Amino acid sequence: MLNTKQITVIASVVVLMALLLSLDIKGLVKPKDQQATRDQAQTGAATASTLTIANVSETAKQGLNANLAQQITALENRLQSASDAEKTGIEKQLARQWEDVNQPAPAAFYYAAVAEKESNYANWLKAGDTFTEAYQDTQDTVAQPELVQKAINAYQKALSFNDKSLDARTGLGSAYVSGTANPMQGIQLLLEVVKEDPENVKANMNLGLFSMRSGQFDKAVNRFKTVIKHQPSPESWFYLASSYENLGMKKEAIDAYEQSKGLAADPGLSQFIDKKVKELK
User: Fold this and answer.
1) How far apart are alpha carbons 175 and 128 in whole angstroms?
2) pLDDT, tens digit, for every residue of 206-222?
3) Which of 79, 111, 194, 231 could form a disulfide bond with 127, CB atoms 3.0-4.6 angstroms apart?
4) Selection from 58, 70, 48, 174 nearest residue 109 by Cα
5) C-alpha distances in angstroms, 98 versus 23, 74, 75, 92, 188?
6) 5/64 same-domain check
7) What are phi and psi of 203, to 5 degrees?
8) Domain's final residue, options 197, 228, 249
9) Could you tell me the sign of the dihedral formed by the alpha carbons of 164, 168, 172, 177, in that order?
């Protein structure tokens, strides 16, 4: 049986592969597939139905075992009949419980509900960060634009309490880059963050991803090196490897791919990397 740490690692690899397939990177997505992905995203943005705590919760429960789903349903039922004074405490419980089972979308809705009642910087930042996890985690092109917008709204409210916050500015910039028609607005925010804090991990990661999308792989290498210096992860090593590969630096790419493989310890990613390494040798 998998422990929590193993589940988290596997989940991160799944997210990694989803992110890779969403990037316009040579050798990962074919031109025809790139256009299909864009078309799906545009259609999803135009036809998205309004997400609610109720429908997001029901969808998330499909990925839980019966016992966990029943526990959450019991809390939700308590919330329905609770007094106004009791509701915030139950919403906090639900948010934490959804987080514990790696379901950021419903957790984000509950954190936002708490922030609406207890409006302050910390609560809105938490809501924004959890909506960010949700839109990065989902492959639903209908839900994703709404989750991105909710992250943007939460970060903007956090900044209304603390307009100097690097965390909120990084989150807002990342959301603009990831899911809006105006990525340059987000890039500007992220560049301002790294000007103040050159070693900022989240800002450098997102700037590195944007550099990959725009074919600036030399810049991407420097961004991912900064990330790895502070938080080495399968994702950061993989992105570094892909950047090296696109620069024709085969030895460096192979070494970085192997680092990613060792940290992830995931059979699916290992097979992908083994194939990549074989191609590069």
Assistant:
1) 10
2) 999 999 989 999 999 99
3) 111
4) 58
5) 28, 13, 11, 10, 33
6) no
7) -65, -45
8) 197
9) positive
Segment 124-142, tens digit of pLDDT: 999 999 999 999 998 888 8
| Number of alpha helices (DSSP H) and beta strands (DSSP E) in the chain | 15, 0
This model's pTM is above 0.85 = no
Token output for 111? 């954190």
Long-range contacts of 254-262 (CB under 8 A, 24+ apart): 254/280, 254/281, 259/232, 260/234, 260/235, 261/234
| pLDDT tens sequence across 4-22 | 333 333 344 444 544 554 4
Q: How many independent structural domains does the chain possess? A: 2
Q: Which residue range is the domain that position 13 belongs to?
A: 1-47+198-281
Q: Once rounded to an integer, what is the mean pLDDT over residues 180-199?
A: 93
Q: Are 86 and 173 in a shared domain?
A: yes
CB within 8 Å of 180: residues ≥ 6 apart: 148, 152, 186
- Can you tell me the distance from the alpha carbon of 229 to that of 3, in angstroms, rounded to the nearest whole number? 27
CA 11, distance to chain mean position in Å, is 11
